[in-house]
Design goal:
It contains three helices and two strands. With 78 residues, it is α+β, with helices and mostly antiparallel strands. The chain has one domain.
């Protein structure tokens, strides 16, 4: 195993699968003497962009008042 010029290293698939490290899993690095330990992070996950958008929109109401019948006319052209 070799560390890249950007400080990256690939965790072998067998190890990732054995401990359940899926893509986008947050991890922490712990220094124990001369050993570096990679552990699953206890920090809360950052919400996805979609989840952030939904949280932002939740509770907001549109400024335009329109009935269902008016929406149907607009969408169907009737």
């Amino acid at each position: 195993m070799c560390i890249t010029s950007r400080g990256q290293v690939t965790i072998p698939m067998e190890i990732r699968e054995a401990v359940g490290l899926l893509p986008n899993t947050e991890v922490d690095f712990r220094l124990e003497g001369e050993t570096v330990r990679i552990v699953r992070s206890d920090a809360p996950k950052k919400p996805s962009p979609g989840a952030q958008l939904i949280a932002h929109l939740r509770g907001h109401k549109g400024a335009v008042r329109i009935t269902t019948d008016e929406i149907m006319v607009l969408t169907r052209g009737q």
